[in-house]
Amino acid sequence: MNSRPPPRRTDPRRASVLVIVLWKCFGLAALALTFAHAMGLELRSAAARSGNAAARAAAEGGMRYAAWVLTQQATAGQVPRDTDYEAEALPVGEATFWLIGRDPDADAPDTPFYGLIDEASKLNLNTASQAMLEALPNMTPDFAAAILDWRDSDAEPRPQGAEDETYSRLTPARRAKNGPFETVEELRLVHGATLELLYGEDTNLNGILDPNEDDGDLSPPHDDGNGVLRRGLIDYLTVHSAQPNRRSDGSRRIDVTANATRPRLFQLLNQRLGEARAAEIIRTIEGRPLTSVAELLVRARLSPAEFARVQTDLANAGTATTRGLVNVNTAPEAVLACLPGIGSDGARQMVAYRLAHPDELTSIAWLTQVLPPEAILQAGPSITGESYQFLADIEAVGPHGQGRCRLRTIFDLSSGTPRIVLRQDVTRFGRASAEDPVTVRRVSGL
Ligand SMILES: [Ca+2]
Ligand SMILES: [Ca+2]
Ligand SMILES: [Ca+2]
Ligand SMILES: [Ca+2]
Description:
- It is a single chain.
- The protein is an alpha/beta fold.
- Among the domains are: 50-122 and 394-446; 242-334 and 343-384, no CATH class.
- The protein has 13 helices and 14 strands.
- It has helices spanning 12-73, 130-134, 141-151, 164-168, 195-199, 262-273, 275-285, 293-299, 304-310, 333-336, 343-356, 373-379, 437-444; strands at 90-92, 95-99, 117-118, 123-124, 237-238, 242-244, 254-255, 314-315, 321-323, 326-327, 383-384, 389-397, 404-412, 419-425.
- Helix 6 runs antiparallel to helix 7 (275-285) and helix 8 (293-299) runs antiparallel to helix 12.
- The longest helix has 62 residues, at 12-73.
């Protein structure tokens, strides 16, 4: 007889209990994993939210800092020198901010430039002539004509221009404004505007060539990959530049273009430069009306020291404000080249002179060293050495590089204290400052 015990049979009830337990374990593990993943996501988005909040707070702090710099250094039309204030990787708590600027002496630099941007370094959309606008890089004659038709009060299209008739054919149909521009972004409504024309290859509006702006179609935007930044028109244009024609005692400046003010002009010259010199200057300019303060500088052969003693008492007009004067000390070569009488050769020479003589850039007196008298007379009514409106383009990054915020604020100092006239959140434009704030802190020991 076979005494071997019968083979053991698994109890089917025990097996199904095991399966159920295994499934439960698997279910619990899956639940735990899902929960952990959700928690991770929640933590990450909470970190991003708090990073964004910290970055926004830092950008707001940056705005106050910019107002403080302007109050201290932009008095009586002076432009703060970028060597006199910090503008790069400034800490606010654990966040960091930058003032995204433009190098006035390099049109397409490859390294970022930090600082405040002078609005008088740009052409004013509301006062520039058609010829001045046409001289801007990448501007087309049609678009320049459409800009003038948009802002002029009549409904008569100029050659190549656009008035109601053109706008009524567009989708959606609209009408020409027939009034001044209120922002430069309003250009997007003008017939012929394209994003490429307005922003060029510089889609993050930082004035330098970023890798994605020089790789063709590998990543947006579309660019020509030629190693050179094609800047958009918006970078060269403003609606804000306006100089108050007020003297330091609050009275109206002397309008040099009016013959009726000659006695006041003589009185001023007499007081500041002495009677003999005043009489000599008045004799030189007698008989012909002046067209600008620059013409007085040239015709009377004022020395820079003499000019410095009278310049803030003189104006090109009898109005309370002169809009759209371009500051020759801060305008980039592309803008200088648009000014009457200057052209591209004159603009190049001016930038070279500015680089070699940074200490002379407190008025327009240095122009006599660079430009022929005739060029200064032609440019005279369009130029100044003073600035009263500044753009603070602030980018802030939160703690550990988490979160980002970019605010652009225009300050107007024509009343003596900084007044905010425009504020835009342009965080959507993408990262503008180059450095990683964590690296900056490590290197600078902040
Ligand atoms: Ca019109
Ligand atoms: Ca760029
Ligand atoms: Ca690209
Ligand atoms: Ca390019």
